[in-house]
Amino acid sequence: MAIPLVIARRLVTLLVLFGLTQNCLAANQPCSGSKGGIARCDGELFLCNDGSISGSKRNCSAERNGGNSAPLRIIDNIASACACGSGTLCTGPRGGQYCVTASGKKSYKRK
């Protein structure tokens, strides 16, 4: 009867370790969740598949072998010129920097 108990304990231990491994792999990544993953770099920012920019503080061009490493240009409130992925950011009335997604929403750069 001792053999099944030993096997059961090992099985429980393996299941717990597998669960911990899965939790580590499920850590937040830039553009995770409803953003659909990373489409490409926009300078140091991660451009997500939904057209927005990630709130991540990580540097996309450094992590993705240079990516699109051209520096972003900051311009005044000209919405048509600051589409996400265009390499430009607009400045809002309170100093926030953003780009405009394909759906017309503003996606702000995290400070």
Protein traits:
elongated, 25% helix, 21% strand, 111 residues, four-stranded mixed sheet, signal, two-stranded antiparallel ribbon
**Radius of gyration over C-alpha positions, nearest whole angstrom:** 21 Å
Alpha carbon gap, first and last residue: 62 Å
> What's the number of helices?
2
Our estimate of the beta-strand percent is 15-25%
Give the count of structural domains.
Answer: 1
Record field, number of beta strands: 6
Keywords: Signal
Signal peptide: 1-26
Task: Write structural notes for this entry.
With 111 residues, this protein is of the alpha+beta class. The protein has one domain. It has 2 helices and 6 strands, in the order αββαββββ. The strands form 2 sheets. The chain has a 4-stranded mixed sheet with strand order 3-4-5-6, with no helix packed on it. A two-stranded antiparallel sheet has the order 1-2. The chain starts with a helix and ends with a strand. The mean pLDDT is 75.
In short:
Residues 1-26 form the signal peptide. The protein has 111 residues and is an alpha+beta fold.
List the helices and strands and how they pair.
Layout: H1 2-25, E1 38-42, E2 45-48, H2 60-63, E3 73-75, E4 88-91, E5 97-100, E6 106-108
Parallel strand pairs: 3-4
Antiparallel strand pairs: 1-2, 4-5, 5-6
